[in-house]
Amino acid sequence: MKFTLRPRNIDVVIICGGKGKRLKSVVNDRPKPMAEIGGRPFLDILIDYLVDFGFRRFILCIGHKGSYIRNYYDKAGPLNILFSYERIPLGTAGAIKNAETIIKSSPFLVVNGDSLCKINFDKFINFFFKKKAKFSLVLVKTKQTGPYGAVRLGPRQEVIGFYEKKKTKGEIFINAGVYLFDKGIFSIIPYRRNFSLEYDLFPKIINKGFYGYCTKARLIDIGMPARYRRAQRILN
């Protein structure tokens, strides 16, 4: 079964509202996604990668120092960039719920504004439709331990366990912060409440059409000073 939606018809929701406390020692004058790499905001690099696959409509979920992002992207040329502003912190899932009225497509893509996983998005979309999924996330295989969400899959790549940021041993699948969600997700996320994808939402959708797309692509994130320096070396 071939996918029925092309990237140009799929909205991209980028979560940009965090306070970036762990990166504050090296980036403290702007939101974390605007940290510069090679003289450009990281968010620019992320959006450019998505644009190369044909995505054209972007919804930036902003909060902390959100005016910095808004002022930068107000004149985005041919791209359609919209803003969803959080007056109070709503968490990763709460931020998506806050943008519900301006998200048009189903499914829609969600990515973290402080990380980049260079997957083939055409294949990820195809996987979503082939599995007849309602929800899916990108998984990267790694032997690293630390602050990553470890995921356990069943024989059809359905998600059967999600262990957010717990220490594990051996090879694991970690959450890359890239998701495709059917709009039915909105019925599960409460309105105007702090609600986390990893801790609050994912346990509720296990065994409800939730699948993991596995990739060998590298996950780059800038959430901590050491990782930010590594991203600079990789992306410069």
What name does CATH use for the topology? Spore Coat Polysaccharide Biosynthesis Protein SpsA, Chain A
**Beta-strand fraction estimate:** 25-35%
User: Cα-atom Rg, whole angstroms?
Assistant: 17 Å
> Could you list the spans in which at least 5 consecutive residues all have pLDDT below 50?
none
User: What order do the SSEs take from the amino end to the carboxyl end, as H and E?
Assistant: EEEHEHEHEEHEEEEHEEH
Per DSSP E runs of 2 or more residues, the count of β-strands stands at 13
Distance between the termini: 39 Å
Total of domains: 1
The share of residues in helices is 10-25%
What features would you describe in this structure?
The chain is an alpha/beta fold and 236 residues long. The protein has a single domain (7-235), classed as Alpha-Beta Complex (Spore Coat Polysaccharide Biosynthesis Protein SpsA, Chain A), CATH 3.90.550.10. The chain contains 6 helices and 13 strands. It has helices at 42-51, 66-73, 91-98, 121-130, 197-205, 225-235, and strands at residues 12-15, 36-37, 40-41, 57-62, 80-85, 108-112, 115-117, 135-142, 149-153, 159-164, 172-181, 210-215, 219-221. The strands form 3 sheets. Strands 1, 4, 5, 6, 8, 9, 10, 11 and 12 form a 9-stranded mixed β-sheet that branches. Strands 2-3 form a two-stranded antiparallel ribbon. Helix 3 crosses helix 5. It is globular, with a radius of gyration of 17 Å.
